[in-house]
Amino acid sequence: MKKETPEPPATSTLMDVGSGVFEVITSSGAVYVIDLDRSTITRHSSRARPQALLRRDSETVRLIAVRECTVGKSLNVIIDLGLSGVAFTSRVSTDVLMIMPLSDKSGPTNG
User: Fold this and answer.
1) Among the listed residues 42, 39, 35, 23, the one whose alpha carbon sits nearest the alpha carbon of residue 91
2) Are 99 and 24 contacting, i.e. CB atoms less than 8 angstroms apart?
3) pTM to 2 decimals?
4) Which of 7, 77, 99, 102 is least enclosed by beta carbons within 10 angstroms?
């Protein structure tokens, strides 16, 4: 019989975290995979709200800074979309509902 590996416990903020890979779920249903080790972020839009698509959804882009990522607050990140002449883009989400450490880098658990 295969032994189940328990999922790591949820965390309430990434503001004091320097490494790891995390799945961040927002109240709009969007799921962000934040890889602090590789400085990347991937947004997966909500299937329930297809009208909420953003540029580069489901594409991994360079994460410059995490300005806020705490349960109950809006996710606020600075990213590089690789656009000519654009140094960075600020992305602010709806409130964060959950932050879960990922044991692998395969992507969101519900998407």
Assistant:
1) 42
2) yes
3) 0.80
4) 7
What CA–CA distance (Å, rounded) separates 44 from 23?
10
Helix (H, G, I), strand (E, B) or coil at 96: strand
Q: Do the Cβ atoms of 73 and 94 come closer than 8 Å?
A: no
Q: How many whole angstroms separate alpha carbon 74 and alpha carbon 81?
A: 20
3-state class percentages of the chain: helix first, strand second, coil last, to nearest 5: 5, 45, 55
48's CB contacts (< 8 A; 6+ apart) are: 29
Confirm if 98 and 108 have CB atoms less than 8 A apart.
Answer: no
pLDDT at 111: 45
Structure tokens at 9: 């416990």
Q: Report yes or no: 55 and 61 within 8 Å, Cβ to Cβ.
A: no
